Task: structure prediction
Amino acid sequence: MLIDPSTAALIEIDVQNDFCPAYTRPSGEKFPPGALAVDRGDEVIEALNLLAATFAAAGAKVVATADWHPSGHVSFASAHPGKKPGETAEVPGTGPQALWPDHCVQGTSGAAFHERLDLRPVSLIIRKGFRRSLDSYSAFFENDRRSPTGLEGYLKSLGIGTVLLGGLATDYCVLYSALDAAALGFTTLVLSDAVRGVGFPAGSVEAALDNMKSAGIRLCPSSGVTLGV
Result:
């Protein structure tokens, strides 16, 4: 697909240590799996790095998002006595809240971007979910569906009309970000080789892909993206 770099942006969703599996650094030091590791989640990095470098060289914008939760965040099962990860809790203003292990706590190594993710092309980092009582899956809105992250205004102020998304995870933050992007009027593409899913509950990845296609979101590999006018 031919993309005009002057009106396009690449959005890298939550490529953070807590969403990635264990890996070994070049020094031989072993880095443990993240608190909410996505199976093969680190496989998205190579494709994102290659495309981000191409985008930056062409003058296109690259944005990275990150979960940035305070201790005791509403999405943590530990914040709800008697609850376990995988269960839900009713949260005023947002309804049922999926509960997860403590993850991406502000200032911790788990919240840091994976060290192999090249941040040099990134012109903006959006941190989300930083309010203790409000979760955020989407890069555009918190889960109350009213509080914007500022990403829409940033992109539209630059005349950007097309967004390409990759990262973690297909069935949560990528899904909600893509659906919001499409609803806000952006031509939206999800990079099929640069996303990986949680797969919880069973069938969630397949359902997410179906939902995106139904919303007019195009799925394509990063190799199918060409920058030009």
Q: What stands out?
A: The chain has a mean pLDDT of 96. The helical segments are 44-57, 151-157, 170-183, 204-214. The first strand starts at residue 2 and ends at 3. The longest helix spans residues 44-57.
